[in-house]
UniProtKB/TrEMBL annotation:
Gene3D superfamilies membership: 3.40.1350.10
Domain YhcG N-terminal: 23-156
Transmembrane segments: none
Protein name in UniProt: Nuclease of restriction endonuclease-like (RecB) superfamily
Domain called YhcG PDDEXK nuclease: residue spans: 180-327
Pfam families, sorted: DUF1016_N, YhcG_C
Length: 344
């Protein structure tokens, strides 16, 4: 091998290579897990349907289900076919057999334990679909799903005002999609921050946990870089974080602010988007989109700041701190209650 063809690994961004490799493996594992979950849920669905159609009810049907459990466990010892679980399968079928396709697809890819939690804790079909999609997209554990339910994330997401100008700056279909993709609030509790930080430190922590941040953003985001350099008219500009969204075919610039929203942030973002569209946007790509991520925002302040802006910009809040002691206590109580139920 010639010296020219040799690659000095120190000259490459090794961390980027490592992160890409890790993401490839985790993505593959997620896809495999979804297939496994879908298959298992299909079996549970069919068993639940069988019990439902045979009109078996707890009480007079308990003897039949107990015997069924014994015989099935002898044949399939690793499938978790206890009497209680068989009744849960019937509940699962009863809850969803008249549900629409989107809801059925959402719960089909969840682990069985997640579906049991939704059965016990969430009644509204639209709320079930919301939590199922969030859990699937963000890879939530059962405890994180419980956390979200207890925080009533569904109601908060439903009631949040849209603080963006997408409807005025994007074609209707793109605006609808952008409103689905971008949220009004993001939870950055995974950073473990317990005291005030500077914007650069916040950015560095997000970069260190970029996979968790991308999961919080949602599906379709690919990370391009931080402090992304743009040069125009002999001047340099730096975008805090730059992403690409595959579904929207748009570059997405994110600016981080540790304080409350200020109107001047919009002008700066508008400039960045103009430069991105001029210097970076591909021929077949859609206009770049900007998100200003700040600690707090006032809807009216955002509305007036965006009023005459012709670039698509959204403003979102983030939460860094969670009521840790209260939340841990809440989750432990729920886990203990579940364990007690399983023993009875």
């Amino acid at each position: 091998m010639s010296k020219k063809s040799q690659i000095n690994i120190e000259e490459l961004d090794y961390s980027a290579i490592l992160n890409q490799a890790i993401n490839q493996i985790k993505t593959a594992r997620t896809l495999v897990a979804k297939k496994v979950n879908t298959t298992a849920n299909s079996v549970y669905w069919n068993l639940g349907k069988l019990l439902f159609e045979k009109h078996l009810e707890e009480g007079y049907g308990s003897g039949v289900v107990k015997q069924l459990s014994v015989d099935l466990k002898n044949e399939f010892p690793d499938m978790g076919l206890s009497p209680r679980n068989l009744w849960n399968m019937k509940r699962f079928y009863e809850r969803h057999y008249q549900s629409d396709t989107k809801l059925l697809q959402s719960v089909a890819v969840l682990p069985w334990g997640h579906n049991l939690l939704l059965l016990d804790k969430v009644q509204s079909p639209s709320a079930v679909e919301f939590y199922a999609n969030e859990a699937s997209t963000k890879g939530w554990s059962r405890d994180l799903l419980l956390n979200a339910i207890k925080m009533d994330s569904y109601s908060r997401a439903e009631n949040q005002l849209k603080t963006n100008n997408f409807s005025n700056t994007l074609p209707e279909i793109n605006a609808e999609y952008a409103n689905e993709v971008f949220k009004s609030s993001y939870n950055l509790g995974f950073l473990g921050i317990t005291e005030p930080v500077k914007e650069l430190e916040l950015e560095n922590r997000l970069i260190a946990k970029i996979r968790a941040f991308v999961l919080e953003l949602g599906k379709g985001f690919s990370f391009i870089g931080n402090q992304y350099r743009l040069e125009y008219n002999y001047k340099e500009y730096f975008v805090d974080m730059l992403f690409f969204h595959r579904g929207m075919q748009s570059l997405v610039a994110i600016e981080l602010k540790i304080g409350s929203f200020k109107a001047e942030y919009v002008g700066k973002m508008n400039l960045y988007l103009s430069l991105l569209d001029k210097l970076e946007k591909g021929e077949n790509e859609n206009p770049s989109i900007g998100i200003i991520l700040c600690a707090d925002k006032d809807h009216l302040d955002v509305e007036i700041a965006l009023q005459d802006i012709n670039k698509p910009i959204g403003v979102a809040e983030y939460q860094l701190l969670l009521p840790k002691d209260e939340l841990q206590s809440l989750i432990l109580n729920e886990i203990n209650a579940e364990e007690e139920n399983e023993q009875t």
